[in-house]
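== Protein entry: sequence and backbone fold ==
=== Local backbone shapes as whole numbers ===
==== Amino acids and backbone structure tokens ====
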Amino acid sequence: MGDNDGVRALLRRKTVRIGAVLLVLSLAIALTVIARNAMRYRQAVALDEAGDAQGAYEIFHSLGRYSDAAQRAQALVDADPALPYRRASKGDTIEFGSYEQDGDTSNGAEPIRWIVLDEIDGQLLLLSADVLEARQYHHVPFEDITWEHSDLRAWMNGDFYEAAFTPVQRGLIETVHNENADQSITGASGGAPTDDRVFALSETESVIYFNTPAARSDIGAALATEHAAESPLSVSEDGTADWWLRSPGTYGFATQFVDASGTPSLSGANVDLQYGVRPALWIDVVGTGEGTR
């Protein structure tokens, strides 16, 4: 028993020593982090005072809740709303606007995640990373319809646009002149060109951006939000869903879509079916927005 008591006492002393060492290490790490944050905060203030709003914003934003970093980051964004997106590049995922996604309206709308599909002359082409809604392309079955007169276009540029973006954010969104080509095989009419702030991708754009198996898997296949999945939307075992393009299918009463695996369907589906919606838009990260592409 005496030997056992001695062993236990020795273990307790070692445990105390180890605890003390860990405490000292934790304090040292905490002090290092505090010192590093303080140094970076001072650097951000210096950059701001020197007129480098972009550099200052990135540091303030990364500091999170340190001091008043979040407030200073927001003040910079208020002065230049494009700051958070100016260094985004093709393939990045950014947050822009907000929309109900988790199925719980009591906690407000959630930030919308967007994939940067392209970057041209200071403008970014964004596609929502997730299927945000389930909607009909058009409510009348077997009626020939083009993007110009579709219910989906009206909703995207009306209710969705108004709900998802603040007036400041709308100032970054470009008005796009879309040429709506006919279906590439049967020649079903794509209709007249349209000027859109928000739109569904076209057949041509699906060929450009989903032209490899990796692109179809990583970008074409999209998870349905909980809000979208609550509607009459068919969701795969992986949580992905079919979503509309804007181009005509084989016939005028059909519209192309991208299936749950990320593969575009050239023949399309009847316009009155409930498929997923992934809005697309261009934002101007150099000028003031509200231009026309």
